[in-house]
Please model this.
Amino acid sequence: MAFNKIKRNPTRPVQVGAIQIGGGAPIAVQSMAATRTQDIDATVRQVELIQAAGADLVRIAVDSKADVRALSEVRDRTRPTGANLSVDLQESYRLITDVAPFVDKVRYNPGHLHHHEKDKPVEAKVAFIAEQAVHHDVALRVGVNCGSVDPVLKEKFGKDDVGAMVESALQHTRILDDLGFTRYVVSMKDSDWRKVVEGNRRFAIDRPEIPLHLGVTEAGMPPDGIIKTRVAFEQLISEGIGDTIRVSLTLPFDDKGQEITVGREILDDIANGRFRSVPASLDHGLNIISCPSCSRVENEKFIELAQDVKEMSTYAADYDVTIAVMGCRVNGPGETDDADIGMWCGPLGVNLKRGEELVGHFPYDTVLNETKRLLDELIEDKTPAAAPAGVED
Model:
């Protein structure tokens, strides 16, 4: 099926700097700077590198006043290149006041709004975000992650985490619409490509007019991360769902442009009817989840650790075990809970988990041995997973 024959959802247009998302515009491809925002030279170089790969939008994480000051200079130095910048708010929603003057779009996570000013209604916090967006002429992204969904919805939906994710997105679209603010896009992400497909399908049925940002979060390292992402994109985009994409890969800083290259290759394949088969065994055997390296990473050893875990664990390839390697304190604690072995990395060491239980905090140079010990314990009583025959999707 050629892309020009695919009927895309008639989403409303959202202006983001010099580009338009939705409203029939070409699907925008974006990535995120992996460097520390306060390392201004490195961040400017990263933005330029990602742009050179063909990015429509580059996202930067901001978590402090020092990050805001750095962002201001990054904006000044990248403005002549025409870079469209987005910023990723973390747990302090009020930072939008400081960052909005320097970017074209702001992403907030509904699941993080409960962290501060807990007595204040969510509606009031969203109203503040929308007010600042209007004042500074920026777009918003309502970015929901399965692993960090609002705890109230998590409790309400129980094991239906996709339902909780979709309901969170729908709630926030209603809040923004009631405020008269419609310059926003929505994303619903998970490390499981099936949940990404299911969540976006559910949402698109209810709100087909809202532009969707597609991505498989913490997809991992190539080639596995590319495969998971490709499968999700092929299914959704071929159904007319999706207006902008992000390929999230764990890569060395100098290779972040590969996210853009891979994204455009996938779009080109879909446009020309080149679809890949989806083996039924895709979700069987060892599954390594790792987040994309970004400016929230507090120690660059995280990237090397993720690669070492992949190499170390090859002997367990046929066992149904999930290992999650997260690079920061924002996503690490919650988004490793569903893994058999979870690792979230701090500046000096790694928090190692078995399921939701914290095993301990270990230095980077010893945590791999501890991880192998846990892995050996997990597979001791397991039998290798049967690999069904492949099927065409």
Observations:
- The chain has two domains: 3-271, 283-380.
